[in-house]
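Slide 14.
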Amino acid sequence: MSGSGDGGGRGGLVTVLRAPVAARTWRELGFLLVGLPLSTLYFSLAITGVALGAGLLVTFIGVPVLAGVLLLCRGFGRLERGRARALLGMPLADPAPVRAGGRAGALASMGALLKSGSAWRHVLYCVVHFPWAVFSFCLALTLWAYGWSSLLYPLWFWVFPAFTDQPGLQLFQNDDYSFYLDSPLAIAATCLAGLLITLATPWVVRALTSVDRVLIGGLLGRSRLDDRVRELESDRGVVVDTAAADLRRIERDLHDGAQARLVALAMDLGLAKEKLTEDPEGAAAMVDAAHGEVKVALQELRDLARGIHPAVLTDRGLDAALSSVASRCAVPVKVAVDLPGRPVAAIEGIAYFVVSELLQNVSKHAGARGAGVDVWKSGGRLLLQVSDDGRGGADPRGGSGLAGLAERLDAVDGVLLVDSEEGRGTVVTAELPWRA
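Slide 15: predicted structure.
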C-alpha cells in the first residue's frame, strides 16, 4: 500500500516538474497569447457592426448590415473552434447550419440569420470574450516572463555590471538606499522565487483556458436544442423505417399465410361445387377439408392481429398481455408486473413488442430451461427486464434483433441494456418513458 502511495507521489512530483516544458502548457499559453489580438478584432467589428446596424434599422439598410455582422461572427466562431480543437484538444461539434425554412432568396437568408439564436451567441462571445482575453493575456504573460526570467537570473545578471554601472538588477530604491540583486543569497532567492512561479504558471494557464473552454463550448458549440433536433430527426427516421418494416412483414405474412390458404380454399370449394352433383361424397370430403383450412386461416389471422396489437393488451393491460405471451414461450416463464396504472397506449404497445421479441429470442437461441419477466415503474420510467438461464453470449452488435429493439426504444427516449456472459444466462433491461 505504501509502495503504491510513494509511486503516486513520485508521479505527481514528476508531473509538476515537467509541466513548465510540457507541450500542453505551451499550446495553452499560445492559445491565450494569440487570443488577445484576435479577440480585439472580434470585439471591434462586432460592436461596430451591431451599433451601425441597430442605428440603421429605421431604414432597410440596417437589416443586411446586422445579417452581415451575424454571418461575420459565425466565421469568427469557426476560427475559434478550430483554435480550440488544435490547441486545447476540445472535441467540439459545429452548430447547426442556419436554414431559411425551405424558402430561397436573400431576404429569407437574412431573416433566418436574424432569428438564429446560434448566430447571436457568436456575437455575444465576441463581446464577452474581449475583457477576459485582456485579463488572461496579461496574467499569463506576466507570470511566464517573471518566472522564467527570475529562474534564469543567475545566467544573465552579469549583464548589469558588465554593461551598466549597477551591480545587479535593482529591486527598489528609497532615498539614498538602493537594493540590488547581486549577492549570492539574493541571486539564489531570486532563482527560487522564479522556480516557484514557473512551476505554478502551467496550472494558472490551465485554469485560465478552462474558462475559455466554457465560453467556447457554451456560446460557439452546438446547443442542446440543436442536439435534440438532430436526435429527433434521427428518431423520426428510425420510426419511419420501423413502420415500413412492420408493414412489409404484415404484407409478407398475409401473402404467404392467410392469403395463400384462402386462395387454395377458394379453388377447393370451386372443385367441390363442380363435383357436388356427380360425386356428393367426394364433394363433402373436399368441403370438410376446406373447413379445416378455414380454421387454420382464421388462427393465422388471429396470430397476425395479436402480433400487431393484441386485444387483450387494449382490454386488460400489460399484465394479462405479457402472461399470454409467456404462455406461448417454449420454456416456463414467470411474469411479475407491478404497475400503479397504465402508461399511454403507444408505450404499452412498445413494451409488449419488446417482451415478445425477447421471449422469442429465448425460445429460439438461448437454450434456457426457464425465464422471467419483471415489469415495474420507477419515477417517470417504465422498466422491463427479461432474464433467462441459458447459454448467454448475446451481443447487440452481433445481430439485427437486439440492435433493432435498441433503435426502436431510442426513438421514444428509451434505453436497452444487455448483460449476457457466456454460460451465465442473459438479462435484458429496457427502460421507457411512462407518459401516462
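Speaker note: The longest strand covers residues 371-378.
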